[in-house]
Design a protein that fits this description.
This protein is α+β, with helices and mostly antiparallel strands and 138 residues long. It has one helix at 105-133; strands at 19-24, 28-33, 55-56, 60-66, 70-81, 91-96, 99-103. The strands form 2 sheets. Strands 3, 4, 5, 6 and 7 form a 5-stranded antiparallel β-sheet that branches.
Length: 138
Amino acid sequence: MSTDRPTVAPEPRRNADGTTSVLTLDAGIVRVACPAWCFVEHGYTVPPAKVQITHRSEPVWALADTPEHGPTSLVEVSLVQWPYSDRDAVFLGVETDDGFLEVGPTGARRIAAALRGQAVHIDTMADQLEALRAGEGQ
């Protein structure tokens, strides 16, 4: 592979009818109709059970570029769905310190509110940090 080009995720493989075929451990080859937002190639290293087939949108990260550390990712989110499980609804997947959480619209809005509140707190602390570095309030 050439090192002068960026590495990108491959486009999902699709059959002529827009479906993709997945070899499973328990149901043989399953033809899966992917939603338009599905980014997954469905090329599993080990054949999954049918209930483990997962649709996932392209992950999006909140990124920060700090002078001290450069670009870093803070939070990853994506749409996720297990179409053949008892949890076939679409969820928002959020990568956290507690693991990968799947939440519905209410949970997603609560996470967004918490992140906005944390942003206000970080701004306040940045003001405090500037004052401390300027020698005020010591």
